[in-house]
Predict the structure.
Amino acid sequence: MPVLIVHQYIPIMAKITRKPAPRKAAVPKKKAKPVATKPKAPAKKSLKAIKPWTPAEVHEVFSRFRKANPEPKGELEHVNPFTLLVAVVLSAQATDAGVNKATRALFEVADTPQKMLELGEERLREYIKTIGLYRTKAKNVIALSAKLLSEFGGQVPRTRAGIESLPGAGRKTANVVLNMAFGEHTMAVDTHVFRVGNRTGLAPGKTPLEVELGLEKVIPAEFMLHAHHWLILHGRYTCLARKPRCEVCLINDLCRWPEKTV
């Protein structure tokens, strides 16, 4: 009987070799375009570097102010030195118009330190609650009224040190009261006077005190009684913070401000 021989078939797997993919040619990176730089604006001149005012120019400026408004008045309403003192203390970070609206009724019932103490802090707050920081200011007004009675015989002191010793009163308060109540040649520097002193170049300074001392140095004595009122009114109504009205300014031909519009 024939024998069936089965041959085992073992497939031979061909070795597969993969050809490496051709490398892509490197694309050169685009060079960043140079950013166009705007030419730098010329640096603004420091006011201190601007030619100082001559005495003749300063005299001319205040002569014009005097001619336009011979007897300038402060806009805080008051009836005596005490009510002026209270009004100035209340005017910190507030407008004169806002203070006047509150104090008209207040001063009808409390125009002396004694009457203010009798009114009391709680009732005082009701009169001045429309004024910013009225709680702190009410506390100060009551405290200064008490101090006036205990240390100054109920009278507003006629010295800077005396006024500055009162609660809520600082150098500006003292200057306003000394000038308006007692006719002293003081220079009260608020935001308006500070701006005018720097912008015009009359008295450049980094602090209110620097501007105050600078103005006192250059303003002739004959103008000092009303000088701070003229400067306040000029800053409040003409030399405005954002859009100064250079076209109607009395002193635009003398002003040193580099950006004036005339």
Q: What stands out?
A: The two ends are 133 Å apart (CA to CA). Residues 134-151 form the longest helix (18 residues). Residues 15 and 41 are 74 Å apart (CA to CA). Residues 1-17, 38-44 have pLDDT under 50 and may be disordered.
